[in-house]
Amino acid sequence: xxxxxxxxxxxxxxxxxEQVFDPxxxxxxxxxxxxxxxxxxxxxxxARRLGIGMGRPYFQIADQLAxxxxxxxxxxxxxxxxxxxxxxxxxxAWLTELEVYSIDEAFGRLPRPRxxxxxxxxxELRVTIRRNLGLPIAxxxxxxxxxxxxxWRRSGEWVHG
Amino acid sequence: xxxxxxxxxPLRLPLAGxxxxxxxxxxxxxxxxxxxxLNEALIQHPSSTFFLRVSGDSMIGAGIHDGDLLVVDRxxxxxxxxxxxxxxxxxxTLKRLVRHNNRLRLEAANSAYPPxxxxxxxxxxxxxxxxxxxxxxxxxx
Lengths: 161, 141
Ligand SMILES: [Mg+2]
What we know:
A: 161 residues; alpha+beta; Alpha-Beta Plaits; 2 domains; five-stranded antiparallel β-sheet; three-stranded mixed β-sheet; 6 helices; 8 strands; 25% strand; B: 141 residues; Umud Fragment, subunit A; eight-stranded antiparallel β-sheet; two-stranded antiparallel ribbon; binds magnesium ion
Protein backbone atom coordinates (compact mmCIF):
# COMPACT_ATOMS: atom_id res chain seq x y z
CA UNK A 1 0.00 0.00 0.00
CA UNK A 2 1.17 3.52 -0.72
CA UNK A 3 2.84 5.51 1.99
CA UNK A 4 1.01 8.27 3.76
CA UNK A 5 2.29 11.81 3.41
CA UNK A 6 1.77 14.25 6.23
CA UNK A 7 2.47 17.87 7.02
CA UNK A 8 3.36 18.51 10.63
CA UNK A 9 3.14 22.05 11.88
CA UNK A 10 3.71 23.47 15.36
CA UNK A 11 0.86 25.69 16.52
CA UNK A 12 1.69 29.33 17.26
CA UNK A 13 5.32 28.23 17.29
CA UNK A 14 7.15 31.25 18.74
CA UNK A 15 4.43 31.94 21.29
CA UNK A 16 4.34 28.27 22.26
CA UNK A 17 8.13 28.22 22.73
CA GLU A 18 7.87 31.21 25.06
CA GLN A 19 5.17 29.42 27.04
CA VAL A 20 7.28 26.29 27.51
CA PHE A 21 9.88 28.21 29.50
CA ASP A 22 7.60 30.67 31.24
CA PRO A 23 4.56 28.86 32.58
CA UNK A 24 3.08 32.18 33.73
CA UNK A 25 2.27 32.71 30.05
CA UNK A 26 0.17 29.55 29.73
CA UNK A 27 -3.44 30.35 28.98
CA UNK A 28 -2.71 34.04 28.56
CA UNK A 29 -2.93 36.20 25.47
CA UNK A 30 0.63 36.58 24.21
CA UNK A 31 2.20 38.03 21.10
CA UNK A 32 5.79 37.75 19.91
CA UNK A 33 7.22 40.65 17.92
CA UNK A 34 9.65 40.53 15.01
CA UNK A 35 13.21 41.89 15.12
CA UNK A 36 13.40 45.31 16.78
CA UNK A 37 9.84 44.77 17.97
CA UNK A 38 8.49 45.74 14.56
CA UNK A 39 5.35 43.70 14.16
CA UNK A 40 3.43 40.70 15.46
CA UNK A 41 4.92 37.42 14.19
CA UNK A 42 3.25 34.94 16.54
CA UNK A 43 0.14 34.89 18.70
CA UNK A 44 -1.04 32.50 21.36
CA UNK A 45 -4.54 31.08 20.83
CA UNK A 46 -5.85 33.53 23.43
CA ALA A 47 -4.38 36.47 21.50
CA ARG A 48 -5.87 35.17 18.24
CA ARG A 49 -9.24 34.98 19.91
CA LEU A 50 -8.94 38.65 20.85
CA GLY A 51 -8.62 39.40 17.15
CA ILE A 52 -4.98 40.54 17.28
CA GLY A 53 -3.88 40.45 13.65
CA MET A 54 -0.79 38.64 12.37
CA GLY A 55 1.83 41.00 10.98
CA ARG A 56 0.34 44.10 12.55
CA PRO A 57 2.93 46.81 13.32
CA TYR A 58 3.39 46.96 17.04
CA PHE A 59 3.17 50.75 17.31
CA GLN A 60 -0.30 50.63 15.74
CA ILE A 61 -1.73 48.16 18.21
CA ALA A 62 0.25 48.82 21.38
CA ASP A 63 -2.78 50.46 22.99
CA GLN A 64 -5.11 47.64 22.03
CA LEU A 65 -2.66 45.06 23.42
CA ALA A 66 -2.34 46.95 26.69
CA UNK A 67 -6.11 47.31 27.00
CA UNK A 68 -6.57 43.55 26.67
CA UNK A 69 -3.69 42.71 28.98
CA UNK A 70 -1.78 40.97 26.19
CA UNK A 71 1.75 39.93 27.12
CA UNK A 72 4.26 41.17 24.57
CA UNK A 73 7.57 39.41 23.98
CA UNK A 74 10.51 40.28 21.76
CA UNK A 75 11.52 37.38 19.57
CA UNK A 76 14.26 35.05 20.72
CA UNK A 77 15.43 33.23 17.62
CA UNK A 78 18.12 31.25 19.44
CA UNK A 79 15.36 29.69 21.54
CA UNK A 80 13.09 29.00 18.56
CA UNK A 81 15.98 27.50 16.57
CA UNK A 82 16.86 25.21 19.46
CA UNK A 83 13.25 24.09 19.86
CA UNK A 84 12.91 23.61 16.11
CA UNK A 85 15.91 21.27 16.07
CA UNK A 86 14.46 19.32 18.97
CA UNK A 87 11.11 19.08 17.21
CA UNK A 88 12.58 17.92 13.90
CA UNK A 89 14.88 15.36 15.46
CA UNK A 90 12.00 14.02 17.55
CA UNK A 91 9.83 13.66 14.43
CA UNK A 92 12.51 11.63 12.66
CA ALA A 93 11.76 8.63 14.86
CA TRP A 94 8.12 8.69 13.71
CA LEU A 95 8.64 8.92 9.98
CA THR A 96 10.52 7.02 7.31
CA GLU A 97 11.35 10.29 5.58
CA LEU A 98 11.34 13.85 6.84
CA GLU A 99 11.66 17.02 4.84
CA VAL A 100 12.01 20.14 6.98
CA TYR A 101 10.09 22.91 5.27
CA SER A 102 10.36 25.81 7.72
CA ILE A 103 11.31 26.44 11.32
CA ASP A 104 8.09 24.80 12.50
CA GLU A 105 6.83 22.74 9.55
CA ALA A 106 7.97 19.46 8.07
CA PHE A 107 6.69 17.03 5.48
CA GLY A 108 6.87 13.39 6.42
CA ARG A 109 6.31 9.99 4.93
CA LEU A 110 5.22 6.88 6.82
CA PRO A 111 3.75 3.50 5.92
CA ARG A 112 -0.01 3.82 5.80
CA PRO A 113 -1.69 1.67 8.48
CA ARG A 114 -3.65 -1.34 7.21
CA UNK A 115 -7.00 0.37 7.70
CA UNK A 116 -5.67 3.63 6.32
CA UNK A 117 -6.53 5.45 9.52
CA UNK A 118 -3.75 7.65 10.84
CA UNK A 119 -5.66 9.08 13.77
CA UNK A 120 -4.21 6.78 16.44
CA UNK A 121 -0.69 7.43 15.17
CA UNK A 122 -1.32 11.15 15.05
CA UNK A 123 -2.76 11.24 18.55
CA GLU A 124 0.24 9.41 19.96
CA LEU A 125 2.66 11.69 18.14
CA ARG A 126 0.88 14.81 19.37
CA VAL A 127 0.84 13.60 22.97
CA THR A 128 4.51 12.67 22.80
CA ILE A 129 5.65 15.99 21.36
CA ARG A 130 3.50 17.86 23.84
CA ARG A 131 5.03 15.95 26.74
CA ASN A 132 8.66 15.85 25.55
CA LEU A 133 8.89 19.40 24.23
CA GLY A 134 5.82 21.15 25.61
CA LEU A 135 4.80 22.09 22.05
CA PRO A 136 1.36 21.64 20.48
CA ILE A 137 1.47 20.39 16.89
CA ALA A 138 -1.07 19.82 14.13
CA UNK A 139 -0.89 16.99 11.62
CA UNK A 140 -2.42 17.00 8.14
CA UNK A 141 -2.46 14.21 5.60
CA UNK A 142 -1.77 14.88 1.97
CA UNK A 143 -3.71 12.75 -0.45
CA UNK A 144 -1.90 13.31 -3.69
CA UNK A 145 1.81 13.45 -4.26
CA UNK A 146 3.26 16.03 -6.56
CA UNK A 147 1.60 19.12 -5.19
CA UNK A 148 3.73 22.06 -4.33
CA UNK A 149 4.34 22.61 -0.63
CA UNK A 150 2.62 25.98 -0.45
CA UNK A 151 -0.53 24.37 -1.86
CA TRP A 152 -0.28 21.35 0.45
CA ARG A 153 -0.23 23.68 3.34
CA ARG A 154 -3.75 24.90 2.56
CA SER A 155 -5.33 21.79 1.12
CA GLY A 156 -4.16 19.02 3.41
CA GLU A 157 -6.70 17.14 5.43
CA TRP A 158 -6.53 17.43 9.18
CA VAL A 159 -5.89 14.29 11.16
CA HIS A 160 -7.85 14.46 14.36
CA GLY A 161 -6.62 11.93 16.85
CA UNK B 1 14.55 28.60 36.99
CA UNK B 2 15.61 29.60 33.54
CA UNK B 3 16.21 27.51 30.43
CA UNK B 4 19.64 27.33 28.91
CA UNK B 5 20.08 26.46 25.30
CA UNK B 6 22.55 25.31 22.78
CA UNK B 7 23.48 21.82 21.80
CA UNK B 8 27.03 21.03 22.79
CA UNK B 9 29.28 19.06 20.49
CA PRO B 10 30.78 15.97 22.11
CA LEU B 11 33.86 16.73 24.15
CA ARG B 12 35.63 13.53 24.94
CA LEU B 13 38.02 13.78 27.89
CA PRO B 14 40.33 10.98 28.90
CA LEU B 15 39.57 9.51 32.26
CA ALA B 16 42.40 9.35 34.78
CA GLY B 17 43.56 5.78 35.27
CA UNK B 18 43.65 5.87 39.04
CA UNK B 19 40.71 6.23 41.32
CA UNK B 20 40.42 9.17 43.68
CA UNK B 21 41.04 8.08 47.25
CA UNK B 22 37.80 9.37 48.72
CA UNK B 23 35.70 6.31 48.89
CA UNK B 24 35.42 6.41 45.12
CA UNK B 25 34.37 2.89 44.25
CA UNK B 26 36.15 2.31 40.94
CA UNK B 27 37.52 4.35 38.07
CA UNK B 28 34.46 3.93 35.84
CA UNK B 29 36.02 1.14 33.83
CA UNK B 30 33.51 1.40 31.05
CA UNK B 31 34.89 4.81 30.08
CA UNK B 32 38.61 4.14 30.29
CA UNK B 33 39.09 3.06 26.70
CA UNK B 34 37.08 5.71 24.97
CA UNK B 35 37.16 8.70 27.31
CA UNK B 36 34.08 10.37 28.70
CA UNK B 37 31.75 12.82 27.03
CA LEU B 38 29.68 14.51 29.70
CA ASN B 39 26.77 15.20 27.36
CA GLU B 40 26.59 11.54 26.56
CA ALA B 41 27.05 10.53 30.19
CA LEU B 42 24.37 12.88 31.52
CA ILE B 43 21.82 12.92 28.71
CA GLN B 44 19.94 9.91 27.39
CA HIS B 45 17.34 11.80 25.36
CA PRO B 46 18.92 14.93 23.90
CA SER B 47 15.83 16.33 22.21
CA SER B 48 13.74 16.25 25.39
CA THR B 49 16.45 17.19 27.89
CA PHE B 50 16.76 20.76 29.15
CA PHE B 51 19.09 22.56 31.54
CA LEU B 52 17.46 24.68 34.20
CA ARG B 53 19.15 26.98 36.68
CA VAL B 54 18.01 26.33 40.24
CA SER B 55 16.89 29.23 42.33
CA GLY B 56 16.10 28.86 46.00
CA ASP B 57 16.99 26.43 48.75
CA SER B 58 13.90 24.23 49.00
CA MET B 59 15.82 21.15 47.75
CA ILE B 60 19.00 21.74 49.70
CA GLY B 61 18.56 18.47 51.60
CA ALA B 62 18.71 16.59 48.30
CA GLY B 63 22.03 18.24 47.44
CA ILE B 64 20.48 20.77 45.08
CA HIS B 65 21.70 24.29 45.80
CA ASP B 66 20.74 27.76 44.68
CA GLY B 67 22.47 28.43 41.34
CA ASP B 68 23.08 24.77 40.47
CA LEU B 69 22.43 23.50 37.01
CA LEU B 70 19.70 20.94 36.74
CA VAL B 71 19.44 18.40 33.93
CA VAL B 72 15.75 17.71 33.27
CA ASP B 73 14.32 15.06 30.96
CA ARG B 74 10.75 15.73 29.88
CA UNK B 75 10.28 12.37 28.18
CA UNK B 76 10.36 10.41 31.44
CA UNK B 77 7.20 9.58 33.27
CA UNK B 78 7.44 10.94 36.79
CA UNK B 79 7.39 8.25 39.46
CA UNK B 80 7.15 8.64 43.22
CA UNK B 81 10.58 9.19 44.71
CA UNK B 82 11.82 11.22 41.79
CA UNK B 83 12.66 14.92 41.88
CA UNK B 84 10.47 16.74 39.42
CA UNK B 85 10.04 20.18 37.94
CA UNK B 86 6.38 21.00 38.39
CA UNK B 87 4.29 23.93 37.26
CA UNK B 88 2.14 25.28 40.05
CA UNK B 89 0.12 28.50 39.76
CA UNK B 90 2.03 29.52 36.66
CA UNK B 91 5.47 29.09 38.20
CA UNK B 92 8.13 26.41 38.19
CA THR B 93 8.80 24.56 41.40
CA LEU B 94 11.33 21.84 42.09
CA LYS B 95 10.16 19.15 44.51
CA ARG B 96 10.23 15.44 45.18
CA LEU B 97 7.16 13.54 44.08
CA VAL B 98 6.12 11.34 47.00
CA ARG B 99 3.30 8.90 47.62
CA HIS B 100 1.94 9.50 51.10
CA ASN B 101 -1.15 7.77 52.50
CA ASN B 102 -1.94 6.61 48.97
CA ARG B 103 -1.91 10.16 47.69
CA LEU B 104 0.69 12.00 45.68
CA ARG B 105 2.36 15.06 47.02
CA LEU B 106 5.29 17.32 46.31
CA GLU B 107 7.83 17.52 49.10
CA ALA B 108 10.66 19.96 49.54
CA ALA B 109 13.96 18.71 50.90
CA ASN B 110 13.96 21.49 53.46
CA SER B 111 11.80 21.47 56.57
CA ALA B 112 11.02 25.17 56.10
CA TYR B 113 8.65 24.25 53.26
CA PRO B 114 5.45 22.29 53.91
CA PRO B 115 4.49 19.50 51.50
CA UNK B 116 1.97 20.25 48.77
CA UNK B 117 -0.83 17.72 48.49
CA UNK B 118 -1.57 17.35 44.81
CA UNK B 119 -5.27 16.79 45.30
CA UNK B 120 -5.48 20.09 47.18
CA UNK B 121 -3.59 22.09 44.57
CA UNK B 122 -5.59 23.43 41.67
CA UNK B 123 -3.68 22.91 38.49
CA UNK B 124 -0.36 21.10 38.87
CA UNK B 125 1.59 19.80 35.93
CA UNK B 126 4.80 17.84 35.88
CA UNK B 127 7.12 19.67 33.47
CA UNK B 128 9.96 17.15 33.61
CA UNK B 129 11.99 14.78 35.74
CA UNK B 130 15.30 16.02 37.17
CA UNK B 131 17.97 13.45 36.37
CA UNK B 132 21.21 15.18 37.39
CA UNK B 133 22.39 18.23 39.24
CA UNK B 134 25.64 19.98 38.40
CA UNK B 135 27.01 21.66 41.48
CA UNK B 136 30.27 23.62 41.56
CA UNK B 137 32.59 22.78 44.44
CA UNK B 138 33.66 26.24 45.54
CA UNK B 139 35.10 29.02 43.43
CA UNK B 140 37.80 28.35 40.90
CA UNK B 141 40.12 30.36 38.68
MG1 LIG C 1 3.01 26.81 12.63
